[in-house]
Write a structure and sequence with these properties.
Blueprint (H helix, E strand, L loop, with lengths): L2 H5 L8 H10 L2 H21 L6 H6 L3 E7 L6 E7 L1 E3 L2 E5 L10 H8 L2 E6 L2 E9 L2 H14 L2 H8 L7 E6 L2
Length: 172
C-alpha cells in the first residue's frame, strides 16, 4: 500500500476564486509574501481546524500535507506544510521554496536524515525520502504544475540552483 492510500490523500480541483489566488501567489511579490507568512498562519489554521485545513488549502485549493523532519543542525523536530504531489501511489515534494533563491530547510533536513513523518488530516505515516532523478523528476515537476501552476513561474525565476524533488514512501 502506498503513501496516498495510507493517508487518504486526494487532490481536488481548485474553484475560480482559488485559481485567482494561485495566480497572485505565483507572482514574485505574492510568492515573497507567502514565503514569509504562510507557515506562521498555517500553524494557527492547523491548530484551529485540528489538522484538517491550511491557509493554502482554504484560499488556494492546494492539497497540503505536513512533513515532519529532524533538524540537521538542531536535532529538533521541524514541521512544514507542503504540497504533496502524487507520484504513483506515493507523494513527492518540490523544493522551489516559493521561487526564492535558497533551497528549503526541509529538503536539507531530509537529505541529512531521510526519515520523517507525513500527516494529512487525521492520519500520520512514517516515511523515507529519496531523491527523484531523470524522467521521474520531470514527471513530478509536470504533475506539480498541473496542481499549482505557480510552479512553472517559480521554475522560470529560479536560476543558479537545481530544483530538488524528493519522493516520500512509507517506511518499512
Amino acid at each position: 500500500m502506498g503513501l496516498q492510500t495510507e493517508l487518504g490523500y486526494r487532490v481536488r480541483p481548485a474553484n475560480a476564486i482559488q485559481r485567482a489566488t494561485q495566480r497572485g501567489a505565483s507572482t514574485k511579490a505574492g510568492a515573497w509574501m507567502f514565503a514569509r507568512t504562510a507557515h506562521h498562519v498555517d500553524g494557527w489554521v492547523l491548530r484551529l481546524t485540528r489538522g484538517r485545513s491550511t491557509l493554502a488549502g482554504v484560499v488556494a485549493g492546494i492539497p497540503v500535507i505536513t512533513v515532519t523532519t529532524t533538524g540537521r543542525k538542531s536535532g529538533r523536530r521541524r514541521t512544514s506544510p507542503l504540497l504533496g504531489v502524487p507520484v504513483g501511489d506515493d507523494l513527492a515534494l518540490v523544493g522551489t521554496n516559493f521561487g526564492q533563491t535558497s533551497v528549503p530547510a526541509w529538503y536539507l533536513n531530509l537529505t541529512a536524515d531521510p526519515r520523517g513523518e507525513v500527516t494529512y488530516r487525521d492520519r500520520t505515516v512514517a516515511v523515507i525520502a529519496r531523491e527523484a532523478v531523470g524522467e521521474e523528476r520531470e514527471g513530478v515537476l509536470r504533475a506539480a504544475a498541473s496542481i499549482y501552476p505557480g510552479y512553472d513561474a517559480y521554475r522560470a525565476r529560479i536560476t543558479g540552483r537545481p530544483i530538488p524533488v524528493l519522493v516520500l514512501e512509507p517506511a518499512p
